[in-house]
Amino acid sequence: MTTLDRRKLAGLVLVLLLACALPFFIANYRVFQMTLVLAYAIALLGLNMLTGYNGQISLGHGAFYAIGAYTAAILMDKAGLPYWATIPLAGAACFVAGFLFGLPALRLEGLYLALATFALGIAMPQILKHKSIEGWTGGVQGITILKPDAPPWTGLSQDRWLYFFTLAWMVFLFVLGWNLLRGRIGRAMVAIRDQPIAAQAMGVNTAMVKSLTFGVSALYTGIAGALGAIAVQFVAPDSFNLFLSITLLTGVVIGGLASISGAIFGALFIQFVPNVADQISKAAPWAIYGIVLIAFMYAMPTGVAGFLRLARARLVRRPSGPIPR
Amino acid sequence: MDQLLHQILSGLATGGIYASVALALVMIYQATHLVNFAQGEMAMFTTYIAWALLQAGLPYWAAFAITVVGAFVLGVAIERIIVRPVENSPILAVVIVFIALLVIFNSIAGWIFTYTIKPFPSPFPAEPLFGNPYLSSHELGSMAITLVVLLLLFVFFRFTPLGLAMRAAAQNPVSSRLVGIRVGWMLALGWGLAAAIGSIAGMMVAPTVFLEPNMMGGILLYAFAGALLGGIDSPGGAVLGGFIVGVLENVVGVYVGSELKLTFALVLIVGVLVIRPSGLFGKVHVVRV
Questions:
Q1: What's the pLDDT score for residue A137?
Q2: Is residue B206 within 8 Å of residue B117, measured between CB atoms?
């Protein structure tokens, strides 16, 4: 969370260039998978802000992913909005939803918040199916949306265009998130996680920061949901069940709690490991999730990002600052 | 009126199931101040064991007894092997381990027994008992079993030395250790008992909801609601809360629509937590600064 030095900046530019070159070397289906990785990375960063940085446990972030996805789908399908205009609106809708859910959540700490969000995660598919909003949500059937065409001047395939569209959003949101987290608000968030009373005594408006964090976290996850829905071209209530929330949590833990780059490692994991494991058994991905979660909590609580940081510190053997938690 | 009475009575029957699971949750909460998110999946998994035993040709009550003992052993083992190492970690780590357990049990059950829905037999006759028009004999029977379990637990905790030791270990671990109680084992016993109660609840609910790996999701949510409503550190309150939630759920299901039953649980949970976090009978927590 410090400022970038030149080497880090060069590394980031290199990664970005690789990310831009990647879709030209892989098949359309792989490009589609990578698009989902980018969307997941945004969602994971959102959840990580809330859980990793601010210490508010959410077991129901799939619900915000669902709200984002549905907002985008409804706006495209019913209101006829172009796909790019739905993304900010989905984010705004989720910000409001997250902020509102964050208000009662203020009074809930640790376990209780986990309980309340757990309930939200379980109840969400049922809310989406309810017949009073069936006219919009399409009930159990869900909504099918058309895959947007690339602007003619780019000459790209639909999948590649969508990849770059998602990549642009991801870069934008990551820069924004990085700025937010290393600044005053980010420090306030961490202070509330570690020492709530001291933070309050220092003049941090705990209630405001906590509910805003909830809102921003939901905004990120909602934008991810919208991008994911456009890529998949389909939303249905049962794909946003509790297990989506658990998937997101798994991604955050594996990538590394309270780490920005961890979101990308986590997203790669939750996109590709289930695909591979699926070939063994339908239940295998979940078994792997569970085992990996426990293993990480015991052996690598800082996730992949923390492990890499540690490994580099060991290898380079330079006196460095304390390892951020 | 008849309709309402019917709904209330069958609500009491399902409420008994919620009360059992809520009691299992409270038991672990009292001892460790943790909420076991995997409670429902553990119950589901042990119900599958009962199913497998029945398939193997065992009589119902033999399978029942073996399952309860097996669940107890499973609960003890989980506490000793998986939960113990993270016991003093931050709450987030513990929650993640519980979620991991939830996922593991769910997937193992799906892996071994497949995701197809299976019927599970009821030990009670198909015709209503005593010719009453309101409750099926399974509902009546499962309510009776729930009450027997509750009574046994009450007797165990109130009148046996081991029960006393467990209560002591939960209330004041340090002093208990000083008088020679093995606190770690008491916690493990608590987990075992909770798992055993959960397995009974699973076997009682399986005939109505059918056996499948996700059968306990909603039930766990209602049990949470019941435990919170009654007060998560009060066993009696949790049982009462479970029954209240069962009745409310049925009545709401009839008059509001059954599609929103889970949402009702969500509203109830958030409502209780916001308005009265200690529940009806729980202790109000004072945080020391």
A1: 82
A2: no
Closest to B18 (Cα-Cα) out of B198, B262, B268: B198
- Number of neighbours of residue B138 by Cβ within 10 angstroms: 20
pTM as predicted = 0.88
Report the sign of the C-alpha dihedral through residues A273, A278, A279, A281, in that order: positive
Q: Which site among B25, B29, B96 would you substitute to test the A interface, given the most A Cβ atoms closer than 10 Å to its Cβ?
A: B96
A290 touches chain B (CB under 8 A): yes
Cα radius of gyration (chain B): 19
Distance CA A130, CA B264 (A): 13
ipTM: 0.86
* Domain boundaries of chain A, sorted by first residue: 28-237
Where exactly are the structural domains of chain B?
A: 20-216
3-state secondary structure of B287: coil
Paired tokens of B140? 């009546």
Compute CA distances B147 → B69, B86, B127, B197, whole Å. 19, 34, 21, 12
Q: Is A146 on the interface with B (CB under 8 A)?
A: no
A195 touches chain B (CB under 8 A): no
**pLDDT tens, position by position, A24-71:** 888 888 899 999 999 999 999 999 999 999 988 899 999 999 999 999
d(CA B15, CA B248): 9
CA B153 centroid distance within chain = 13
Measured between alpha carbons, how far is residue A60 from residues A39, A118, A126, A161 in Å?
17, 5, 14, 31
Task: Provide the Cα torsion A25, A27, A28, A30; round to 10°.
Answer: -90
Residue A153 · residue A90 · CB < 8 Å: no
Mutate one of A51, A109, A115 to test the B interface: name it (highest B CB count within 10 A). Answer: A115
Do B93 and A284 count as a contact with CB atoms less than 8 A apart? no
CB A222 within 8 A of CB A75: no
pLDDT at A1 (0 to 100): 43
CB pairs under 8 A between A and B: 138
